[in-house]
Write a structure and sequence with these properties.
Elements lengths: L1 E6 L1 E2 L5 H14 L5 E3 L14 H4 L6 H13 L2 E11 L2 E9 L5 E6 L10 H4 L8 E2 L6 E3 L8 H9 L4 E5 L7 H15 L2 E5 L2 E4 L2 E2 L5 E3 L5 E4 L5 E6 L3 H9 L24
Parallel strand pairs: 1-3, 2-11, 3-4, 8-9, 9-10
Antiparallel strand pairs: 1-15, 4-5, 5-6, 7-8, 10-13, 11-12, 13-14
Keywords: Acyltransferase, Transferase
GO molecular function: acyltransferase activity
Pfam families: CN_hydrolase
């Protein structure tokens, strides 16, 4: 199974419509792949908060149509990254997954919003539902950027049948080491592929890490991009997931539902 991660640059001098057309053309160029992935919020930029409301669109909007057409023409499974979704109750950071027929088969509203009471965390609502895309060769769970820091989400996706995780992101350069470390950690602890696709360039003054990466179920980095715009192409062996889980069955030893301690821990002053 071949996967292509499109590490697109979000240039503020390029209009959203122009970037949408360019992204669709890049997807079509990857017709030799089985799965194509775009990054988080590539239409506007993950840190371009002031543009979120103006560029928000419904799930019937132009990005859905452009990506559906591109997936159908290339005959690929397409994780089209995420967009700013306008819903009646507010804005969401929403990922779209299309089948090779161009059908929208899964959406995922980002659960963990970044910002610590500012930015995305206050401008967007949080999702509350896990999602696994029904790719026959390799069912993959959906997570977005900051979600990568929350292992319990990925455990839930494993329980829902995921054998891989696709993680579009707009990860900043200043925390790039965390990006690589967390991608490998999620792969190792869940014995699943991780396909983490970031953006290049600068979003609203925030330099992006790039370095899209594909990690196998044993934690080996199969391919990693640089910082610039790039298409990362990698061959995956879907059988490797179950082989790894059979040879090293750590997931069977999980202990769930442990009770909390009866006595709260003391602070550094013994209180």
């Amino acid at each position: 199974m071949r996967a292509s991660l499109i590490q697109i640059s979000v240039n503020p001098d390029e209009t959203v419509d122009a970037r949408r057309r360019r992204a669709a053309a890049l997807v079509r160029e990857e017709a030799a792949s089985d799965l194509v992935v775009l990054p988080e919020l590539w239409t506007v930029g993950a840190f371009a908060y002031e543009s979120f409301a103006a560029e928000a669109e419904t799930l019937e909007g132009p990005t859905r149509q452009a990506m559906a057409d591109a997936a159908a023409e290339a005959r690929v499974w397409l994780h089209a990254g995420s967009l700013v979704e306008r819903a009646p109750e507010g804005l969401y950071n929403t990922s779209l997954v299309f089948s090779p027929d161009g059908e929208l088969v899964r959406t995922y509203r980002k659960i963990h919003r970044f910002g610590f009471d500012q930015g995305e965390a206050v401008l967007m609502s949080a999702g509350d539902t896990l999602a696994v895309a029904p790719c026959p060769e390799l069912p993959f769970g959906l997570a977005t950027c900051y979600d990568l820091r929350f292992p319990e989400l990925f455990r839930g996706l494993v329980d829902a049948g995921a054998r891989a995780f696709v993680v579009p992101a707009g990860w900043p350069e200043r925390r790039r080491e965390h990006w690589s470390l967390l991608a490998r950690a999620r792969a190792v602890e869940n014995q699943a592929y991780v396909l983490a696709c970031g953006t290049a360039g600068t979003h609203a003054g925030v330099e992006q890490a790039g370095h899209s990466v594909v990690v196998d179920p044993w934690g080996e980095v199969l391919a990693e991009a640089g910082r610039g715009e790039e298409v990362l192409v990698v061959e995956l062996d879907p059988a490797r997931v179950m082989t790894t889980r059979d040879q090293f069955p750590a997931l069977k030893d999980r202990v769930l539902g442990l009770p909390l301690p009866a006595t709260p821990p003391t602070d550094r002053n013994g209180r």
